[in-house]
Design a protein that fits this description.
This protein is an alpha/beta fold. Helix content is 38%, strand content 13%. The chain has one domain (1-483): Alpha-Beta Complex (Amidase signature (AS) enzymes). It has helices at residues 9-17, 23-41, 49-60, 64-69, 107-114, 157-164, 181-187, 221-231, 271-286, 302-317, 335-346, 349-362, 368-389, 414-419, 425-430, 458-468, and strands at 44-47, 76-80, 118-123, 170-175, 190-193, 213-218, 257-261, 290-294, 394-398, 434-442, 445-452. It binds glutamine. Glutamine (GLN) is lined by residues 129-132, 155, 175-179, 207, 310, 421.
Length: 483
């Protein structure tokens, strides 16, 4: 039998349910793999070996029927460390949370447990999920398993790298402007951002609440679907959770009308990425799907709008870290200086930059000029998609304009870093589902393609992408971390 840590969630679950392997053996194999490669990848901030072993042993006592009934039984899962857990610390990649242990589990964690998943640890991220490289983590960078001198993307870089390097078959990430899809693209894994409101945000440490969404990162679309089915659904603890989001049928196998937005293939697109995405489009045409050129004219304003709305919401969400209610507290000669020193010492530069930007954008006199204008752009972007989806079933774009860049390469040029989000932020602004799937390697580095669907068409999107997965080159092994 192949090494257990090379298998998908579906394969592991089936072996376990059939009684061919124990959950304990599955957990041990993944812990050993983490031990062997995470010294060089640094995907994990915390590994709960004992907790995972205990859960596994409990599952080994289950009857075959119980194993069968839990769709993720026997499956090790990692969580981005902005998803709160009762039994493990949660850092959000920041010093300010100190040794914070949440008094409750996030809804997605409850749902994972209910589905039989074995939570094995917490993964690295840019501080408070602000970033595209994982370099903004207070606990050091994560490295790309395909080339350890490069970033894994971000902000869910730890989750992406953990899945790509076969340390876990499944990880959860969060996506506010691309943080699931971009690192998925950079590391050659599948990353799915569901429709806003399909997955509860209860227990997700808030960055920009009107954009944040949790989703799965896996090595196959089938696994992403299985995990999404387990974690989605209405939650009364999250007032933005959708009641209408009942599980829907997967939809037809086509042929579909596929929209190709001309604004997403313009200047600044890496020729290697362009070549692979265009080959994918050709493959789709050969399968009988109809490619339709469309326009999403307001996408050119998306980065500007996103980098006002997200920091504005962040500045409000992060005001709760004052040294009184959570984690770390610095000393000060009075209350105000205690607040100031705590925030000064606790937050990293990128977080401070965003809080400043957001506070400025929301301040009296500037609100109309910045925040309100950005909200109007957001409406236009949503309308662009509505118009497009009245004539096409799906939209296909590159996930990112480039491939994984070198550590430090964009650190002095943040505008370049922000521009890398150009193809992903629009789905968050519009609230629609988006998925990045790997197209293989372009000159040695993974390249992803993004598929977008109308609001609430999550199941249809997953079904469609599963059907086209077969025309994608299978991902080879990340050689840097091969044993
Ligand atoms: N890279 C984007 C940012 O820095 C998106 C982050 C995210 O989706 N959490 O804000």
């Amino acid at each position: 039998m192949a090494e257990l840590w090379t298998l998908s969630a579906a394969q592991l679950h089936d072996l376990f349910a059939a009684g061919e392997v124990t959950a304990e053996a599955i957990v041990e194999a993944h812990l050993e793999r983490i031990q062997a490669v995470d010294g060089s990848v640094r995907a994990f901030l915390y590994v709960d070996a004992d907790g995972a072993r205990e859960t596994a042993r409990a599952q080994d006592r289950w009857t075959p029927k119980e194993r069968q009934e839990h769709p993720l039984s026997g499956v090790p899962v990692a969580l981005k460390d902005n998803i709160v857990t009762r039994t493990m610390p949660t850092t959000a990649g920041s010093k300010i949370l100190g040794r914070f242990i949440s008094p409750y589990d996030a809804t997605v964690v409850d749902k994972l447990h209910a589905a039989g998943a074995i939570v094995i640890g917490k993964t690295n991220l840019d501080e408070f999920a602000m970033g595209s490289s994982t370099e903004h983590s207070a606990f050091g960078s994560t490295f790309n398993p395909w080339d350890l001198t490069r970033v894994p993307g971000g902000s869910s870089g730890g989750s992406a790298a953990a899945v790509a390097a076969r340390m876990v078959p499944v990880a959860l990430g969060s996506d506010t402007g691309g943080s699931i899809r971009q690192p998925a693209s950079y590391t050659g894994v599948v990353g799915f951002k569901p429709t806003y409101g399909r997955v509860s945000r209860y227990g997700l440490i808030a960055f920009a609440s009107s954009l944040d969404q949790i989703g799965p990162m896996t090595r196959s679309v089938g696994d992403a679907r299985r995990v999404f089915e387990a974690i989605q659904g209405y939650d009364r603890q999250d007032s933005t959770s959708l009641q209408s989001g009942a599980w829907a049928p997967e939809g037809t196998s086509g042929p579909w009308r596929i929209g190709i937005p001309k604004e997403y293939f313009g200047e600044g697109l890496d020729p290697v990425v362009r070549q692979l995405v265009e080959a994918h489009l050709e493959g789709l045409a050969q399968q009988g799907h109809q490619l339709v050129e469309i326009s999403l004219p307001h996408s050119v304003y998306a980065i500007a709008a996103y980098y006002l709305i997200a920091p504005a919401e962040a500045s409000s969400n992060l005001s709760r870290y004052d040294g009184v209610r959570y984690g770390m507290r610095a000393s000060g000669h009075d209350l105000l200086s205690m607040y100031e020193t705590t925030r000064d010492e606790g937050f990293g530069d990128e977080v401070k930059r965003r809080v400043l930007l957001g506070t400025h954008a929301l301040s009296a006199g500037y609100y109309d000029q910045y925040y309100l204008t950005a909200q109007k752009v957001r409406t236009r972007i949503r309308e662009d998609f509505e118009r497009a989806f009245s004539i096409v079933d799906y939209i296909v774009t590159p996930t990112t304009p480039d491939r994984a860049f070198r550590l430090g390469e964009k650190s002095d040029d943040l505008i370049r870093m922000y521009l890398g989000d150009i193809y992903t932020v629009t789905a968050n602004l519009a609230g629609i589902p988006g998925i990045s799937i790997p197209l293989g390697l372009g000159e040695g580095l993974p390249v992803g393609v993004q598929w977008l669907a109308p609001t609430l068409a999550d199941e249809a999107l997953l079904g469609a992408v599963r059907a086209v997965e077969s025309i994608c080159q299978p991902m080879p092994w990340p050689e840097e971390v091969q044993q």
